[in-house]
Amino acid sequence: MRWSYSASRSFRQCQRQWYFKNVAANARAKDPFRKRAYLLGKLQSISAWRGKIVDDVISKTITPNLNRGVCVTLTDATNRARVLFDRQLAYARQHPLTDLGLQVSKAGDDFAIFHAMEYEGELPKHEIERAWCEVETALINLFSLEDISLILKSSGYIVSQRALQFTLMDNVTVLAYPDAIAFRNDAPPAIIDWKVHAFGTNDAWLQLAIYAIALSRCRPHRDFPSGFETQPQESVLYEVQLLTNVVRKHSLEEEQIVEAEEYMLSSAYEIACLTEGRKYADLNVEDFRGAAYEETCQRCAFRAICWEKSHVY
Ligand code: SF4
């Protein structure tokens, strides 16, 4: 079983949602139900989508250029974001989810599908306009953050959205995707998590602590600095709230590392006890508890198949 921080949150919020995303969804399955679960899992809220556009501009445009010693200007970044924004919007409008033949990889960077289109039948114009304003604000703020800019520009090498894997316990592999890891020649690595949240009140220390543990325990990728090794408490952790322009710097004490390890173990154990290593064919959706709050269902990407299968309420 693969465990991730986001899967653990999904499981605690609604076990059934976790089941659809992590067990039932399968892009290559012939079973239309599993294919539909896979595509439903790709639905995004408009706010998550605008955050992903910002993430993509940072990880696919700004970071690779910095690694080559080329500075990207705010205008370049905003132009790239606008291209992604318009192309993904056009793709989503032309591809309702009734088409089970949608090929995510073929669409590449143009791919986007929306929760609002699937469940409300339209994309509210004012929300799309606000999403673009927030993309612009996030990028303007990014370019104004001098400390973060200095870390990125002075790094020897930056990797973005790289999978870090390690074995947590029998049959459980942890998978972590930090937004950015900046390897610095004369300083410990910096792990950065970009957040594009309207309120930015969440404290992401636990998520960042899990990334720091993963960086210390994973097998280094081939492009990591030669002989790279680190301890979780050595990494410098930054939670960068790009809409509110707040940067939270976290450093880990021993007790926080223990707390993060206990969180991973207890969550993985809880999931493993319910699934007992069984695969899709041997599991039944009814074995998984539904959400406690109706608001969770309103936001849920899998509502269509969940409510077809059973009466949750
Ligand atoms: S619709 Fe509700 S109960 Fe069903 S998977 Fe989603 S959150 Fe869970």
Could you characterize what this model shows?
It is a single chain. Helix content is 50%, strand content 15%. It is globular. With 313 residues, the chain is α/β, with parallel strands linked by helices. It is built from 13 helices and ten strands. A hairpin with a 4-residue loop joins strand 9 and strand 10. Iron/sulfur cluster binds at residues 14, 16-17, 20, 290-291, 296-297, 300, 302-303, 306, 312.
Secondary structure layout plus pairing:
Elements: E1 2-3, H1 5-13, H2 15-24, H3 32-40, E2 43-44, H4 46-67, H5 74-94, H6 104-107, E3 113-114, H7 115-120, H8 125-144, H9 146-154, E4 157-160, E5 164-169, E6 172-176, E7 180-184, E8 187-195, H10 205-217, E9 236-241, E10 246-250, H11 254-275, H12 294-299, H13 303-309
Parallel strand pairs: 1-6, 2-3, 8-9
Antiparallel strand pairs: 4-7, 5-6, 7-8, 9-10
Helix pairs in contact: 1-2, 1-11, 4-5, 4-8, 5-8, 10-11
The site of iron/sulfur cluster (SF4) has 13 residues, from α2, α12 and α13.
